[in-house]
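Lab notebook, design round three. We kept the backbone fixed and only want residue identities now. Task for the bench partner: fill in a sequence for the structure below.
Input structure tokens:
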């Protein structure tokens, strides 16, 4: 599975659970080269835009 993670630079998590947002973003800090950002379930368009963006913000 770790080899699979290296194929991605970013991952978006859609959830309405605050704890899951925090855990997801914390996991992103554990994997160098992978940024994980959490979004509310109604922010699908924003999540897709973030995934396809080339900036590091």
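Proposed sequence:
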């Amino acid at each position: 599975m770790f080899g699979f993670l290296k194929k991605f630079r970013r991952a978006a998590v859609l959830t309405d659970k605050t704890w899951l947002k925090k855990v997801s973003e914390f996991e992103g800090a554990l994997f160098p080269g992978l940024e994980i950002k959490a979004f509310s379930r109604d922010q699908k368009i924003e999540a897709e835009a973030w995934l396809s963006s080339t900036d590091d913000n």
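Keep this in mind before ordering anything: Residues 14 and 41 are 5 Å apart (CA to CA).
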